[in-house]
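Incident log, structure service

09:12 report received: a user says their structure output differs between two submissions of the same chain.
09:20 pulled the input from the user's history:
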Amino acid sequence: MKRTTIIVQALLISMGCAVLLAAVSWLGGEAGEAAPANAALLDKHEQPVELNHDNLVDELIAWKLLVPVAKVELSGSVLSLDFRITEGADQPDRLYQGLAQAIDRAFAGTSNVHRLLVRFIAEDRWLGNKYLLLAADVRRGEWPKDALEELRTRGDLELSHELKRWFRVTETSLWKTMIHK
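09:34 re-ran on a clean worker, output below:
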């Protein structure tokens, strides 16, 4: 008899907790709708975040970069990104858009990144060799407002002298031959 009472009490407590959790969930939503699972992330990214070693991977995932990242490093206010370029993903237009996206996320989305070092590295999957195609050394606030849009919409054309200067872009001879195909 005592055992049955304990089981009934445990069931009643469990049901009570379930009802309480449902009520809290319902009250947390708008007009009876549950809040989206990523609501905290949405609120978090309205303001620039401070990148650190604890949140670096999560933030980069949230950036949803067009070009896959092979390596990332944060040292003080300097963020370094190595992008992996594989066969068929080496179109200049795509890489320029990826660079523009990385610049935008690094400076508009963070409060503590003041310098962004980017390298686009081509990987030969058959031989395992890696080749530097393009690199940039970008500093916060050292380019005009419309420079990012110009970079995004450059297409497959060679970068203008101004874009190279503003974003401190270095092009390898391999990159130049790809542009002039």
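09:41 both user submissions now match this output. Likely a transient worker issue. Closing.
09:42 reviewer note: Confidence is low (pLDDT under 50) at residues 16-45. Helices lie at 2-28, 39-44, 56-63, 92-108, 147-152, 161-166, 173-179.
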